[in-house]
Specification:
mainly alpha, 320 residues, Mitochondrial carrier fold, two-stranded antiparallel ribbon
């Protein structure tokens, strides 16, 4: 396990960025299916008092998978991967830098730094880092949602999607869904509080402390609890990222909540939850695994460099 006080926050940040890109590439088809299940609808025709009436029905995860295979092939599952990787790398670079920097600041001020962060300290650190990350990365996720929903046929890059959004909808649209995203800061707070406390327990009870395998499993457990408890807000955030093409589309989070409940019931807030849980848990597990491996490697290299520096310094003193 890499010592948090020994390793620079920037090292944690870069390791998390690389780990996030790798984990996103592995699990992205599940991201696509989850997004489509949250945002896509199909028209169903029924009869009401002798007149035909149409209503929107959200597509299931299975229906989304069949649609992609039939209309776009395997590549359809990777629509928007470019912007997703940009988003997750930026997200992790920002979040982990501020999280680790704040954690290091807190631990340096504590007498028993080896005991790690307390639950309250984890919550405070996660809240600050999460809010900074939301405002830094929201435009990328708005572009990613648009690209994913439109499919591979639009051949739109992240940069062109951002330009198109600004041109057609205004720069404010890049921050659509910021309110639910800020509420979703609860997600990493729950995730990292669970991770930190389980990590502290392992470090206290196991010789050698946390390993990458431990990080894989407790990262997955933390994400399972976090995503399961905040999923309705994840759905709201995805819906708010879409362009309003109808006068009936809500413009506020409360309007979206009311419309989803009226048209789809409670179930509407949980469309695609099974695939989202699978994706987010796997992504988090791989992220923590890769991050721990990369951070540990960086820490070992840092120790070697410092040891060489100390030897060179000692030799200079002897020669004098």
């Amino acid at each position: 396990m890499a010592d948090r006080l020994e390793v620079d926050p920037a090292t944690h940040s870069v390791a998390a960025g690389i780990g996030g890109a790798l984990s996103m590439a592995v699990t992205y088809p599940l991201v696509t299916l989850s997004t489509l299940a949250q945002t896509k609808s199909e028209k169903t025709t029924g009869s009401k008092q002798g007149e035909e009436a149409q209503e929107e029905k959200r597509v299931s995860t299975l229906a989304a998978a069949k649609y992609l295979l039939k209309n776009e092939g395997i590549l359809g599952f990777y629509s928007g991967l470019e912007s997703a990787i940009y988003g997750v790398v930026l997200n992790n670079l920002v979040y982990y830098y501020f999280y680790e920097a704040l954690a290091k600041l807190i631990l340096n001020r504590k007498k028993k730094a080896k005991n790690g962060l307390t639950p309250v300290e984890s919550i405070l650190t996660g809240a600050i880092a999460g809010c900074i990350t939301v405002f830094s990365t929201n435009p990328i996720w708005v572009a990613n949602t648009r690209i994913t929903v439109k499919g591979k046929g639009n051949k739109m890059s992240t940069l062109s999607a951002l330009k198109d959004i600004i041109k057609t909808d205004g720069i404010k649209t890049l921050f659509a869904g910021v309110l639910p995203a800020l509420i979703l800061v609860l997600n990493p707070i729950i995730q990292y509080t669970i991770f930190e406390q389980l990590k502290n327990l392992i470090n206290k009870t196991r010789k050698g402390g946390l390993t990458s395998t431990h990080a894989f499993f407790i990262g997955a457990l933390g994400k399972l609890a976090a995503t399961g408890s905040t999923y309705p807000y994840i759905t709201l955030k995805a819906r708010m990222h879409l362009k309003d093409e109808s006068e009936n589309k809500p413009t506020t989070i409360w309007g979206w909540m009311k419309q989803i409940y009226q048209q789809e019931g409670i179930q509407g807030f949980y469309n695609g939850i099974s695939v989202k849980l699978s994706q987010s848990v796997l992504t988090a597990a791989f992220l923590f695994y890769f991050k721990e491996e990369l951070t540990s490697l960086s820490a070992k290299m840092l120790r070697v460099v410092r040891a060489q520096h100390q030897r060179a310094k000692a030799l200079r003193l002897v020669r004098k």
